[in-house]
Amino acid sequence: MLAKDGPLKQMFKGTLEQLLKAESFKLSSAFCRREQSWQQSEREKSQNP
Questions:
Q1: Quick one: CA torsion of 37, 34, 39, 36, rounded to 10 degrees?
Q2: CA distance 36 to 45
């Protein structure tokens, strides 16, 4: 392994981690929204049988 590829690898790893964090955040927020709308429709169903 070359010594000079250290910082570049670090930068690449950091970028990857940021991308992963952003993706998981988007996924979890989308999931939360779906959960909420599902709960809302369930509530409406129970109110209007």
A1: -70
A2: 14
Query: What pTM was computed for the model?
Result: 0.55
3-class SS at 49? Answer: coil
Q: What is the pLDDT of residues 4-35, one digit of tens each?
A: 678 888 889 999 999 999 999 999 999 999 99
Q: Which two tokens stand for residue 28?
A: 């979890």
**Alpha helix (H) residue ranges in the chain:** 6-47
Radius of gyration from C-alpha coordinates of the chain: 21
Distance CA 5, CA 27 (A): 33
